[in-house]
Fold ATP synthase protein I.
Amino acid sequence: MAFTNGKKIREFPWRQWLVMQFVIITLVATVSIALFSVGHMLAVLSGLLIALVPNAIFIWFGYRFQGAKNAQQIVGSFYKGESIKFILTALLFAVAFMAVDGMYAVHIIVGFIIGVVVGWVGSIRL
């Protein structure tokens, strides 16, 4: 926690956010294997991880610095984190689509959408 004029600035609870996403990924993967097959589950899991891994890297970059004295470092870190997140997401999608059979492509996208929505909801709730 950082202090400013005697008041505490609350840090983003990134550890809780990552644990929450991991738990939801496990639940979604379990449900998808129960409803479909192992191939479908792996495709959904790939999409979920395509959403989670770049977000985790962005959080690591984005929340390294705090305070007004570090404003330029914070902005630079956010830009760097977002750039890496975008490039990594595109690369992971390319690898996933090359590695998975065409009939599972929709499941990769559905897993990614679920992962993004879970990240948004988790950020709002925390």
Q: What stands out?
A: The chain has four helices and two strands. The chain has a mean pLDDT of 83. The radius of gyration is 17 Å. The chain has one domain: 12-116.
